[in-house]
């Protein structure tokens, strides 16, 4: 049964000599710019200077890119062991969200320590920006054709027909990238709604981690990624760990805030 949505988009916008511009790279750059703009706006509401936010960003972004690529390479090691030079082909796709979050957090912690900034307040500032950036980034995955789900006859199934995309075939499949994008946008709306109500610093960020991990576990179950551990995919394993860490911490912060009258 033919897909209702046929994707006939060239992943490459422009190619000339050594220069190749891809939709994926352009959209990831857009996600970064929009995310930083939102973070600057949120920081102003919480009494954090714009220069401090940009300082953290300068540390967090390089760490995030390295972490995102590293987690992806580990997940797809069978491929990269045979084609090691492809590890550097970041512009073609292959950035793991969780690796970006872990790497970005590590870089942010370095910046916070060096400048003596309020950690939990900055994490609360970052939460809406991070989930917004993730939602925008999934558009790049959608154009690339990677991270699809299994074949389906649903009317919103997608079929990739343009040569050079990363789809496994042209069968109509679940658009798992769009499922995650919609979930991310819903989570963004919830975080923006709660950010004025959750006064305890760190609570917004821990809720973001727990709720994203919960949704990502089930969305990853649809994606046709290789098993990583105990029959689960890499993102599912990390989702379980993140949820089990973030939810108790969120409950602790909430309880502590009640006891302190915060």
How would you describe the overall organization of this protein?
This protein has helices spanning 23-45, 50-75, 77-82, 97-115, 119-144, 176-194, 203-222, 234-260; strands at residues 5-7, 12-16, 19-22, 158-160, 227-229, 232-233. It is mostly helical and 262 residues long. The strands form 3 sheets. It has a two-stranded parallel ribbon. A two-stranded antiparallel sheet has the order 2-3. A hairpin with a 2-residue loop joins strand 2 and strand 3. Helix 5 packs parallel to helix 7 and helix 6 (176-194) runs antiparallel to helix 7. The chain is globular and about 50 Å long. The protein starts with a strand and ends with a helix.
Q: How many beta-strand segments?
A: 6
Structural class: mainly alpha
Low-confidence stretches: 258-262
First and last CA, distance = 57 Å
Mean pLDDT: 89
Helix content class: 55-70%
Described by the principal axes of the CA atoms, the overall outline is: globular
How much strand?
5-15%
Please work out how many helical segments DSSP would assign. 8
Q: Write the element-wise H/E pattern from the N-terminal end onward.
A: EEEHHHHHEHHEEH
Largest sheet: 2 strands, parallel
Task: Going across the biggest sheet, name each strand in turn.
Answer: 1-4
C-alpha Rg, in Å?
Answer: 19 Å
Topology, element by element:
Blueprint: E1 5-7, E2 12-16, E3 19-22, H1 23-45, H2 50-75, H3 77-82, H4 97-115, H5 119-144, E4 158-160, H6 176-194, H7 203-222, E5 227-229, E6 232-233, H8 234-260
Parallel strand pairs: 1-4
Antiparallel strand pairs: 2-3, 5-6
Helix pairs in contact: 1-2, 1-5, 2-4, 5-6, 5-7, 6-7, 7-8
């Amino acid at each position: 049964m033919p897909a209702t949505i046929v994707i006939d988009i060239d992943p490459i916008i422009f190619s000339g000599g050594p220069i190749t511009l891809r939709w994926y790279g352009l959209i990831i750059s857009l996600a970064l710019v929009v995310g930083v703009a939102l973070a600057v706006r949120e920081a102003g509401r919480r009494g954090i200077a714009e220069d401090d936010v940009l300082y953290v960003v300068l540390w967090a972004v390089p760490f995030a890119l390295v972490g995102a690529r590293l987690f992806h390479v580990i997940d797809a090691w069978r491929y990269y062991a045979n084609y090691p030079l492809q590890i550097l082909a970041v512009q073609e796709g292959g950035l793991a969200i969780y690796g970006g979050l872990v790497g970005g957090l590590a870089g942010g912690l370095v910046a916070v320590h060096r400048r003596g900034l309020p950690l939990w307040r900055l994490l609360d500032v970052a939460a809406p920006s991070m989930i917004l950036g993730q939602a925008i980034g999934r558009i790049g995955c959608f154009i690339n054709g990677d991270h699809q789900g299994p074949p389906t006859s649903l009317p919103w199934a997608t079929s990739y027909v343009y040569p050079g995309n990363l789809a496994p075939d042209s069968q109509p499949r679940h658009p798992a990238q769009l499922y995650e994008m919609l979930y991310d946008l819903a989570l963004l709306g919830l975080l923006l709604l709660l950010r004025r109500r959750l006064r305890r610093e760190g609570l917004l960020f821990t809720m973001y981690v727990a709720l994203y991990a919960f949704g990502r576990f089930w969305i990853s179950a649809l994606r046709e990624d290789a098993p990583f551990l105990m029959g689960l995919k890499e993102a599912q394993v990390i989702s379980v760990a993140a949820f089990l860490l973030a939810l108790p911490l969120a409950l602790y912060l909430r309880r502590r805030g009640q006891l302190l009258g915060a």
